[in-house]
Protein backbone atom coordinates (compact mmCIF):
# COMPACT_ATOMS: atom_id res chain seq x y z
CA UNK A 1 0.00 0.00 0.00
CA UNK A 2 1.37 3.42 -0.93
CA UNK A 3 1.82 5.93 1.85
CA UNK A 4 2.38 9.66 1.72
CA UNK A 5 4.16 11.47 4.50
CA UNK A 6 5.46 15.01 4.83
CA UNK A 7 8.83 15.64 6.38
CA UNK A 8 9.48 19.35 6.50
CA UNK A 9 9.13 20.70 3.00
CA UNK A 10 9.91 17.40 1.27
CA UNK A 11 7.20 14.91 0.42
CA UNK A 12 7.77 11.16 0.19
CA UNK A 13 5.63 8.59 -1.58
CA UNK A 14 6.22 4.95 -0.73
CA UNK A 15 5.65 2.72 -3.74
CA UNK A 16 7.76 -0.33 -3.00
CA UNK A 17 10.77 0.89 -4.99
CA UNK A 18 9.50 -0.09 -8.42
CA UNK A 19 10.07 2.06 -11.48
CA UNK A 20 6.56 1.02 -12.58
CA UNK A 21 4.27 3.16 -10.44
CA UNK A 22 1.04 1.90 -8.96
CA UNK A 23 -2.19 3.65 -9.97
CA UNK A 24 -2.45 4.98 -6.42
CA UNK A 25 1.04 6.52 -6.63
CA UNK A 26 0.25 8.09 -10.02
CA UNK A 27 -2.97 9.54 -8.60
CA UNK A 28 -1.09 11.02 -5.64
CA UNK A 29 1.58 12.47 -7.92
CA UNK A 30 -1.10 14.06 -10.12
CA UNK A 31 -2.84 15.43 -7.01
CA UNK A 32 0.42 17.05 -5.93
CA UNK A 33 0.85 18.61 -9.37
CA UNK A 34 -2.69 19.99 -9.11
CA UNK A 35 -1.90 21.45 -5.69
CA UNK A 36 1.33 22.99 -7.04
CA UNK A 37 -0.68 24.57 -9.86
CA UNK A 38 -2.54 26.64 -7.27
CA UNK A 39 0.71 28.50 -6.51
CA UNK A 40 1.30 29.52 -10.14
CA UNK A 41 2.22 33.15 -10.72
CA UNK A 42 0.75 33.83 -14.16
CA UNK A 43 -0.66 37.37 -14.29
CA UNK A 44 -0.07 37.64 -18.06
CA UNK A 45 -1.19 34.37 -19.60
CA UNK A 46 -3.57 33.27 -16.82
CA UNK A 47 -2.38 29.74 -17.73
CA UNK A 48 -1.64 27.89 -14.49
CA UNK A 49 0.68 24.85 -14.58
CA UNK A 50 1.87 22.64 -11.75
CA UNK A 51 4.32 19.76 -11.70
CA UNK A 52 5.22 17.04 -9.22
CA UNK A 53 8.51 15.21 -9.75
CA UNK A 54 9.22 11.79 -8.20
CA UNK A 55 12.85 10.84 -7.57
CA UNK A 56 14.12 7.26 -7.63
CA UNK A 57 14.07 7.18 -3.84
CA UNK A 58 10.47 8.42 -3.73
CA UNK A 59 10.98 12.07 -2.82
CA UNK A 60 8.53 14.46 -4.47
CA UNK A 61 9.43 17.98 -5.56
CA UNK A 62 6.73 20.29 -6.84
CA UNK A 63 6.91 23.35 -9.04
CA UNK A 64 4.63 25.87 -10.68
CA UNK A 65 5.04 28.28 -13.54
CA UNK A 66 6.33 31.73 -12.63
CA UNK A 67 5.86 34.41 -15.28
CA UNK A 68 7.75 37.65 -15.69
CA UNK A 69 6.92 40.93 -17.45
CA UNK A 70 9.99 40.18 -19.58
CA UNK A 71 8.26 37.10 -21.00
CA UNK A 72 11.33 35.01 -21.81
CA UNK A 73 12.45 35.13 -18.17
CA UNK A 74 9.48 33.10 -16.96
CA UNK A 75 10.04 29.61 -15.58
CA UNK A 76 7.86 26.62 -16.41
CA UNK A 77 6.52 24.34 -13.68
CA UNK A 78 8.49 21.32 -14.93
CA UNK A 79 11.83 23.14 -14.91
CA UNK A 80 11.00 24.66 -11.54
CA UNK A 81 10.38 21.22 -9.98
CA UNK A 82 13.47 19.67 -11.58
CA UNK A 83 15.66 22.58 -10.50
CA UNK A 84 14.40 22.26 -6.93
CA UNK A 85 15.27 18.56 -6.94
CA UNK A 86 18.72 19.12 -8.44
CA UNK A 87 19.44 21.88 -5.90
CA UNK A 88 18.76 19.30 -3.18
CA UNK A 89 21.14 16.72 -4.72
CA UNK A 90 18.73 14.63 -6.82
CA UNK A 91 19.28 13.96 -10.51
CA UNK A 92 17.63 10.59 -11.19
CA UNK A 93 13.89 10.57 -11.60
CA UNK A 94 11.07 8.03 -11.94
CA UNK A 95 8.29 10.30 -13.13
CA UNK A 96 6.81 13.75 -13.37
CA UNK A 97 3.11 14.64 -13.37
CA UNK A 98 1.95 17.85 -15.03
CA UNK A 99 -1.36 19.64 -14.37
CA UNK A 100 -3.13 22.62 -15.89
CA UNK A 101 -6.66 23.97 -16.20
CA UNK A 102 -7.16 22.53 -19.71
CA UNK A 103 -10.28 20.37 -19.62
CA UNK A 104 -10.47 19.24 -23.25
CA UNK A 105 -6.92 17.95 -23.64
CA UNK A 106 -4.00 16.67 -21.59
CA UNK A 107 -1.37 19.26 -20.73
CA UNK A 108 1.86 18.71 -22.62
CA UNK A 109 5.27 20.18 -21.76
CA UNK A 110 6.75 22.86 -24.01
CA UNK A 111 9.79 22.05 -26.15
CA UNK A 112 12.17 23.68 -23.69
CA UNK A 113 10.86 21.55 -20.83
CA UNK A 114 11.09 18.42 -22.95
CA UNK A 115 14.77 19.13 -23.57
CA UNK A 116 15.29 20.02 -19.90
CA UNK A 117 13.73 16.69 -18.83
CA UNK A 118 15.85 14.86 -21.42
CA UNK A 119 19.00 16.10 -19.67
CA UNK A 120 18.15 13.63 -16.90
CA UNK A 121 17.50 10.62 -19.14
CA UNK A 122 15.20 9.52 -21.95
CA UNK A 123 13.34 6.69 -20.23
CA UNK A 124 11.47 8.12 -17.25
CA UNK A 125 7.71 8.66 -17.27
CA UNK A 126 5.69 11.82 -17.86
CA UNK A 127 2.04 11.87 -16.78
CA UNK A 128 0.02 14.43 -18.74
CA UNK A 129 -3.18 15.16 -16.85
CA UNK A 130 -6.50 16.99 -16.90
CA UNK A 131 -8.20 18.72 -13.94
CA UNK A 132 -10.50 15.72 -13.44
CA UNK A 133 -7.46 13.54 -12.64
CA UNK A 134 -7.48 11.59 -15.90
CA UNK A 135 -4.07 11.18 -17.49
CA UNK A 136 -2.00 9.69 -20.24
CA UNK A 137 1.50 8.34 -19.71
CA UNK A 138 4.42 8.97 -22.05
CA UNK A 139 8.18 8.64 -21.68
CA UNK A 140 10.57 11.53 -22.12
CA UNK A 141 11.82 9.73 -25.23
CA UNK A 142 8.30 9.65 -26.69
CA UNK A 143 7.91 13.37 -26.07
CA UNK A 144 11.31 14.18 -27.60
CA UNK A 145 12.34 11.46 -30.09
CA UNK A 146 15.81 11.51 -31.69
CA UNK A 147 16.87 13.87 -28.93
CA UNK A 148 20.20 15.39 -28.00
CA UNK A 149 21.47 14.48 -24.53
CA UNK A 150 24.59 14.55 -22.38
CA UNK A 151 25.92 11.31 -23.91
CA UNK A 152 26.04 13.03 -27.30
CA UNK A 153 28.79 15.30 -26.00
CA UNK A 154 31.03 12.24 -25.62
CA UNK A 155 30.60 11.08 -29.21
CA UNK A 156 33.49 11.23 -31.65
CA UNK A 157 33.88 14.65 -33.23
CA UNK A 158 35.83 16.07 -36.11
CA UNK A 159 38.61 18.11 -34.52
CA UNK A 160 41.09 20.66 -35.74
CA UNK A 161 39.00 22.06 -38.57
CA UNK A 162 41.13 24.66 -40.37
CA UNK A 163 39.89 28.20 -40.22
CA UNK A 164 39.52 29.21 -43.88
CA UNK A 165 38.23 32.74 -44.10
Q: Can you put this structure into words, describing what you see?
A:
The protein has 165 residues and is of the alpha+beta class. Helix content is 23%, strand content 25%. The protein is built from four helices and seven strands, in the order ββαββαβαββα. The protein has a seven-stranded mixed sheet with strand order 1-2-4-3-5-6-7. β6 and β7 form a beta hairpin. The radius of gyration is 17 Å and the shape is globular. Residues 1-8 have low confidence and may be disordered.
Order of strands in the sheet with the most strands?
Answer: 1-2-4-3-5-6-7
Number of strands: 7
> Tell me, what's the shape?
globular
- The percentage helix is 10-25%
Query: In what range is the share of β-strand residues?
Result: 15-25%
- The low-confidence runs, each spanning 5 or more residues with pLDDT under 50, are 1-8
Number of helices: 4
Please, what is the average pLDDT?
90
H/E order of the elements? EEHEEHEHEEH
Calculate Rg over CA atoms. 17 Å
Main sheet makeup:
7 strands, mixed
Distance N to C terminus: 67 Å
Label the structural class. Answer: alpha+beta
What secondary-structure arrangement, pairings included, does this model have?
Blueprint: E1 3-7, E2 10-14, H1 23-37, E3 49-55, E4 59-64, H2 77-87, E5 93-100, H3 111-118, E6 125-129, E7 135-139, H4 140-143
For this entry, give a set of tags:
165 residues, alpha+beta, 7-stranded mixed beta sheet, 23% helix, disordered N terminus
Amino acid sequence: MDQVKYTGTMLHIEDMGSRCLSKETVKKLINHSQEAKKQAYCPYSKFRVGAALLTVDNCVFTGCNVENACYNLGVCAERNAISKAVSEGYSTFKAIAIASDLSDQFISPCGGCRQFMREFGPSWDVYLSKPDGSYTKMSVNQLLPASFGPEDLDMKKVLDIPNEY
